[in-house]
Design goal:
Elements: E1 3-4, H1 6-16, E2 22-29, E3 37-44, E4 52-56, E5 61-65, E6 76-81, E7 86-91, H2 106-123, E8 127-134, E9 139-146, H3 154-169, E10 175-178
Parallel strand pairs: 1-6, 2-5, 9-10
Antiparallel strand pairs: 2-3, 4-5, 6-7, 8-9
Helix pairs in contact: 2-3
């Protein structure tokens, strides 16, 4: 699996030292394609997804979407010195490789897209969207959570951001339906 050099582990531990319940997520954009890229980000333990594999290190955990694992088998994270400071460098030689099982379900693809391209914007308002299911009519049933639940702007967010992006990126989808039981409360952003 992923190898992390000792000095890179120490560096990550220092970065996370005072952050409670914060770990590292590694994810791939455009896996198996020529423009594939690998990224690291902080993730709160409450935001870890069920489809993510946990890899434990002494002072932190790394979470990776199970679908990304074949592309990261030979990967390595090192700490390298640049001109002014130190940087983490992730080397994933299989990133652009195509594997036999590249037929991920529509639901898996949508989940990944939501995590990478929609939720980062909603997190700034303390909210997120979760895909509940894709039904037989290829309709995406979604639920807004956190600050998005009961927010007075949720219909705009649904139409202008979530629905528009999902329908543009997934031609099989016919509709996006919000199944949230919206309750306006102190958690609602607006």
């Amino acid at each position: 699996m992923i190898k992390i050099s000792k000095n890179a582990q120490e560096y990550i531990s220092r970065l996370l030292y005072k952050k409670k319940n914060i770990h590292v997520r590694i994810f791939i954009k455009n896996f198996g394609k020529e423009d594939a890229s690998c990224h690291m980000e902080y993730v709160h333990i409450d935001d870890v997804l069920t489809q993510e594999k946990e890899i434990k290190f002494s002072n932190f955990n790394i979470y990776i979407n199970k679908r990304d694992l074949p592309y990261l088998k030979k990967s390595e994270i090192k700490l390298v010195k640049s001109d002014l400071n130190f940087e983490l460098m992730l080397n994933a030689p299989d990133l652009k490789k195509t594997f036999q099982k590249n037929d991920y379900s529509l639901q898996e693809e949508i989940n990944s897209f939501i995590e990478l391209h929609i939720n980062p914007f909603l997190f700034s308002h303390g909210g997120k969207v979760v895909l509940i299911e894709v039904n037989k009519k290829n309709q995406a049933m979604i639920e807004f959570q956190g600050g998005c639940n009961g927010c007075s702007m949720v219909s705009t967010t649904l139409k202008d951001m979530v629905e528009k992006r999902l329908l543009n990126n997934f031609k099989k989808l016919t509709k996006v339906i919000d199944v949230t039981k919206h309750i306006h409360d102190i958690h609602s952003y607006y």
